[in-house]
TrEMBL record:
It comes from Streptomyces echinatus. Belongs to the OsmC/Ohr family. InterPro entries: KH_dom-like_a/b (IPR015946), OHR (IPR019953), OsmC/Ohr_fam (IPR003718), OsmC/Ohrsf (IPR036102). One of its GO terms (biological process) is response to oxidative stress. This is Ohr subfamily peroxiredoxin.
Length: 158
């Protein structure tokens, strides 16, 4: 376990479900060099990307940006959770996809906030079964658990 993380038993306070991990199984490490006008690297050398402000935020767009990276991570993680709950329920989700859109904009507190829209495609399942699997995946996915109550996450099943 990484020294910055401490293990703790899962507890609930009030009516909110405590979704913090009770055991850290993996730690990803990345470093930003130059903020939104530089590059990011991972400690294992697998990731080295140029980052740039998108034109919509006044940049040249000559690189990826944190919102794209967050969208990639959320969509991959949610899709994995969906496949997991689908397999547990006896469904083969081959051909399914999850796309994520991450929006950024000013909030009411002189800072910035995010909003996420997930678009889930489960072409081989009827709508009721698909909706149940999406709801179950939303409870399992670590990104869903991390963002719940903090940012707006909408899920479109199509």
């Amino acid at each position: 376990m990484h020294h910055l993380f401490r293990e703790r038993p899962a507890t609930t306070e009030g009516t909110a479900v405590d979704t913090r991990p009770t055991k850290i199984m993996y730690v990803a490490e990345a470093t930003a060099h130059g903020g939104r006008a530089g590059y990011v690297t991972s400690h294992d050398g697998r990731l080295e990307l140029k980052v740039a402000m998108p034109p919509e935020l006044g940049g040249d767009g000559d690189g990826t940006n944190p919102e794209q990276l967050f969208a990639a991570g959320f969509s991959a993680c949610f899709h994995n959770a969906l496949i997991l709950v689908g397999n547990r329920a006896g469904y083969d989700l081959t051909g399914s996809t999850v796309a994520a859109k991450v929006g950024i904009g000013p909030n009411r507190h002189r800072g910035y906030g995010l909003a996420v829209a997930l678009s889930v495609s489960l072409p081989v399942l009827d709508a009721e079964v698909a909706a149940g699997l999406v709801d179950a995946a939303h409870e399992v996915c670590p990104y869903s658990n991390a963002t719940r109550g903090n940012i707006d996450v909408s899920i479109l099943l199509g």
